[in-house]
């Protein structure tokens, strides 16, 4: 069976995903999240459409939106933005860090079984949040860990592995500057996750290449999104990591921006804008010595593999 990616407008062959921002936030509609930081209020579709049109004009074709349900996700807004910008969007089920939910949010007290059922149902049904509107299913499971995995986070990671076994859906995780990455992997592996369909995010905030190599040796993928954040005096450790690790792990590394604040978007008057990922970063990578084949793997080939569904009847755990 041809591998596919589940977008907010329906399934597409993985080969059609195109150049992909591997960890992004397009819509965040939550008063609770905005109270934590007003910059996180990304609730307007028109600026999102303008930003994604710029991204598309620069060569971008897809983004993985990593805001799960109940903490700011709006699947109908994502579907509208995707349709009008022509950028494929994948939306998340899953559970973010507890701070992004009101303290009385029922999902924070769900058992492993309840979380797994919830995640799987959002992947398999087509009526997320608005049953009378555009049919939308989640296409990735997003779970988040802190510097140490809390009891809630351990429940969420366990449920993610169980839901992946049921559905064949890829998993993407949040790390706090790369912390507890091996704990995340071990928990997912223990409960049967397929590690080549697991992507750890933000690990480039830790600049130790040996730490990254140990993570990659497990078979997981990693997403780097710090390249535009480093100050001039710091050089660019993200680019350094890519140059050092890609020869050994050519099929496991991807890039994104995680530009979840208004000040990063051109359409809100900020910068560098999401188009930076497609326009400026490849130039920086070429200047650092990466060839076009390596850049294509980072942007196109690796996301097509990491974010595609697999046949649960024939999967092999790693």
Features:
318 residues, alpha/beta, TIM Barrel, six-stranded parallel beta sheet, three-stranded parallel beta sheet, 11 strands, 36% helix
Compact summary:
The chain is α/β, with parallel strands linked by helices and 318 residues long.
Question: Your description of this structure?
Answer:
The chain is α/β, with parallel strands linked by helices. The chain has 10 helices and 11 strands. It has a single domain, classed as Alpha-Beta Barrel (TIM Barrel). The strands form 3 sheets. It has a 6-stranded parallel beta sheet with strand order 6-7-8-9-10-11. A 3-stranded parallel beta sheet has the order 3-4-5. It has a two-stranded antiparallel sheet with strand order 1-2. The chain is globular, with a radius of gyration of 18 Å. The model has no long low-confidence stretch (mean pLDDT 95).
